[in-house]
Amino acid sequence: MDSIIVKGNGPLNGQIPIAGAKNACLTLMPATLLSDEPLTLTNAPRLSDIKTMSALLQSLGCEVSQLQGGQVLVMSSHDLNNHVADYDIVRKMRASILVLGPMLARDGHAVVSLPGGCAIGARPVDLHLKVLEAMGAELELKEGYVHAKAPGGLKGGTFEFPVVSVGATENALMAATLAKGATVLKNAAREPEIVDLAVCLRRMGAQIEGDGTDTITIQGVDRLGGATHPVVTDRIELGTYMLAPAICGGEVECLGGRIDLLGAFCEKLDAAGIEVAETDKGLKVARRNGRVSAVDVTTEPFPGFPTDLQAQMMALMCTAQGTSVLEEKIFENRFMHAPELMRMGAEIDVQGGTATVTGVERLKGAPVMATDLRASVSLILAGLAAEGETIVNRVYHLDRGYERVEEKLGNVGAHIERVSGQ
Ligand code: UD1
Fold first, then answer.
1. What is the pLDDT of residue 176?
2. Which residue of the set 118, 248, 254, 266 is catalytic?
3. Is residue 118 annotated as part of the catalytic site, yes or no?
4. 109-113 and 145-149 beta bridge pairing
5. Which of 69, 180, 239, 299 is the 20 to 30 A CA-CA neighbour of 353?
6. Which residue has the CA at smallest separation from atom 7 of ligand 1?
7. How many whole angstroms from 164 Cα to the centroid of ligand 1?
């Protein structure tokens, strides 16, 4: 298994290109199942999760071609010949559940393995199932698989989500495009990835209004056609790289960055004393003097502070002046990076879903273990701010969500290298 070695750094300077969003791409890809015409995605990120979704779609009979080194994905679901999403693929990636709604909507039947738990919490899929049931699906759970049927097709209706779920909103949105009549989704997720999905579905001929608000209305149509769609910028990769100059000092321009994708994250950077300016090409981020100020953070659905940037923000707060309180409200077990950061000299007290971080002047390099995707990158950020060498082990999680991390950070002056494992 590969490791990443980071040596404590001075200021970073230069430009970092931000890729297309992993989480948007993972929901745009299953949208191909809604049509028998090709769907082409441009600006796709080159990540192992995208390969996993390609493998899942191929197992269902989709043709998936990767062009331009994987930045363009051309998919065709003309000849779907299998409606079973196998456990062996689904267990690798929870987003696999996103094939359920589209397959059911188009062909009236689908069998999808339940994804099971994951490192950051139990993460059930009950809401995905409930909203499809509300649309008339008949579901049965057998041997770890959901067997779904909608013989006469799905039907529109009104469904109010009891909690905001990105994935369940995406599954329902895709399914509703081919349902009979109108579907109204209330308390829907407002994430930029939902808006990106709606834009793509409209390009395919869907009738959708209200995406980006908490009420989305979809008027079902008989069929969807093909489309070409550029994947929206990855706001989590963007936020992660914005934190690099925040933690090391210097000035970095994140190419393709947009303020409107960041919600509360930008306000927190401002409160911490980080300068963020819009440029022609993206966002310029600078920390010019002294330590950052401690700020409190509570994770919430968009436009609140994203849970996917909590670990990285904690790394920054480890060296801030003062004490910050980080509350994790989305996932119940998402502080696994805290004990690793403490091995680097951070002062963190975790009580349930709350972590209290007292900033120290300097972290110290240490061997640490990556436990999940965002935790991995938080340890790299911490390593950039630490004295001496940090070895981040088990970085395979990282490759699920960050393309060429060592190259992107190396180009702005970070001392970082990947060491191949046995
Ligand atoms: C997506 C993102 C993930 C991000 C998360 C929250 C993808 C591929 N992943 O995950 O990176 O951290 O949004 O922004 O886009 N819940 C239920 N029942 C359900 C579904 C969810 O109780 O059926 C709960 C979850 O356990 C969690 C909360 O709802 O506590 C939000 O989860 P959700 O928004 O669904 O996350 P994902 O779509 O899985």
1. 98
2. 118
3. yes
4. antiparallel
5. 239
6. 23
7. 8
